[in-house]
Amino acid sequence: MSKKDYHNSGGLIALLGSIIFVFAFFFYVVYINKGVDLAENVTEPAKPGEVQFDLASVKEPWVESAEVVTAGAKIFKANCAVCHGAKGDLVGGIPNARNLVEGQWTQGSGMINHFKVLQNGITGTQMVSFKATLKPFERWALVQFIDSITKNKPANEKPEDVAAFATTAD
Ligand code: HEC
Predict the structure, then answer these.
(1) Roughly what angle, to the nearest 10 degrees, separates helices 111-120 and 136-149?
(2) Which residue from 38, 127, 148, 163 has the least number of CB within 10 angstroms?
(3) Are 165 and 89 in contact (CB under 8 A)?
(4) For the chain, percent helix, then strand, then coil, each to nearest 5?
(5) 149 lines ligand 1 (CB under 6 A)
(6) How many whole angstroms separate alpha carbon 152 and alpha carbon 113?
(7) Residue 77 C-alpha to ligand 1 middle, in angstroms?
(8) What is the pLDDT of residues 133-158, one digit of tens each?
(9) Diameter of the chain by CA atoms?
């Protein structure tokens, strides 16, 4: 063995280099790198002085309200957009779901009929019942959202009829 091989300086440099690299990388990951934002925080923190809207506390979620529509849009994104598209127009959805904006309804137009669809689903289709998965106030928020986007509303659905139905529906 030559003297050169005995003092394997190349190996030593490589070893020290790796050790330094590992420490530097550790330092980078722990102290410098801020992490990757996976956008998992869907709820925005309340700004100071801002009152958070609490859908659950709305006594009559079927009564037209911009805040309920906004809450409904969020519930729609989480539960319905995968099939109906984020805006309900099938863009990004599945082709055999209904375009809720065009509103070629098979179960009837209007808030009462839409609520019934969410209660019962449409038998034999991918449109399942959401009775077990969404609370009535969440389904009413969805119905208000659909009512806000559709071009096909009945001319004569009275708010008092919706309210009367709502007290019997769960
Ligand atoms: C797995 C896919 C899927 C999901 C998720 C889904 N839907 Fe549907 N939806 C469908 C399909 C498919 C139809 C059309 C069924 C048919 O052929 O009549 C439909 C139909 C409808 C209709 C039309 C009723 C009518 O009168 O024609 C409404 C309203 C509706 N969905 C609302 C919703 C809402 C609100 C959600 C979220 C809570 C939702 N859907 C989630 C697939 C889905």
Answers:
(1) 130
(2) 38
(3) no
(4) 50, 0, 50
(5) no
(6) 13
(7) 13
(8) 999 999 999 999 999 999 999 989 99
(9) 100
